[in-house]
Task: structure prediction
Amino acid sequence: MDKNFLWGGATASYQCEGAWDVDDKQPSMWDVYLHENNLENGDIASDHYHRYEEDIRMMAEGGQNTYRFSLSWPRIIKDKEGTVNEKGVAFYHRILDTCHKYGIEPFVTIYHWDLPQYWEAEGGWLNHQVCAAYEHFAKVCFENFGEKVTYWTTFNEPKWFIVNGYFIGNYPPGLQDVQKTMYGAYHVMYASALAVRAFREGNYPGEIGIVHSYTPVNGVDDSIETKIAMRYADNYCNNWILDTAALGEFPIDLIAKLSEKYDVSFMKQEELAIIKQYTVDFIGLNYYARTLVKPYTEGETQLIFNHSGKKGQSKVVIKNWFEQVKDPNSEYTAWDTEIYPKGLQDGLLEAWQRYQLPIFVTENGVGVREDVSVECVQDEYRIAFMNDHINAIMNAMDQGVDIRGYYAWASFDLYSWKNGVEKRYGLVAVDFENNQVRKPKASYYWFKEMIASNARLITRRKFEGDKIK
Ligand code: BGP
Result:
């Protein structure tokens, strides 16, 4: 591994900061949605707002050299007019200064889903004005933090928050509407290009990318029908983000397909030209699992998401497009996420072949229920998971893929969207019931040794085959 390889963990503002109404922070769409629906929320979360120093110190003590976190828009910008909240800006200066004090490279996400409610009330991502408002927010971030940040990303996972918010309906604003999903998707990709333009025009130091929830697509067999289903799935899951951000173009066959039933006239030439011109410097890939598909056969579109942690509940069928299936030979988590490290290796290779851009693996981890009352959580499953996924990265690097960093999700236990805090991902346990006490898990110590060994500690193996066995 290159000496500059970045090893660290990731978090997101809403999921860890807490302090939801402190120091003039405005409510985000998640605050309002979870409060109104009486669901477990991130009001306090891991209280990172007050404990960031301890958290960042523990990263450094764990041998990590980087921290990926996001900036909260409603903490930094007070209103639709774009007024800056100096207290919010000061908080992120404290975080950045603490990172530098401990030799931790900050890797900054501009937007990780916490849209200010004052914009959600105006239609959120369905409202074109939000693109310009986001651009303003991004400029405020570049202006204030530009000197302290080398790695920026415009958005975390457009696929996930747009599809869940407007198509599946399990995230705010809870809609199930294809046309609106298309508006939202387009606005986010356009807003991302506006931020890249602002970054280039401002001549800020560093680089800018985008983070995608990457699910490389596999098919159940080699038939032509399966290949077609795979292309639909790839367009739905990956291409509208990665092609658009990296190549500057929405997939033409996706737009053609959608235009058979839906309006695409909102895609304006002058905006598409901005998307074409302002592509990213690198891509961030969050990898949890692949998407395994078979051709669609019958029935209506069905999109069911498992938030209960009771196995066997999720379903993705898109009428006339594809059906997602489970591999009977794979292991799945209680939340129906397949454990499939080979998918990361294949996906990295594919992304490299298509885009030829440097890649950071910006999230990777496994969510489980854990008893954190013990002195040290013995999370061997997480160690095995990380070992196998880092091995997959190393295999991809051996095949020539330019990979620059690895971020465990998450640096420490935090709030998991709609799943509450019982779905734990952290390298450090947070005892939410007991005064937010932090205790490193076994995986934290393993990660430290692994980094110190420059990944020589990784048990290497080659993956074989690519079909269901
Ligand atoms: C990604 C998000 C993260 C994080 C992670 C785990 O999609 O970027 O914010 O939450 O997934 O997902 P979950 O918490 O839903 O299990």
Notes: The longest strand covers residues 207-214. The chain has a mean pLDDT of 97.
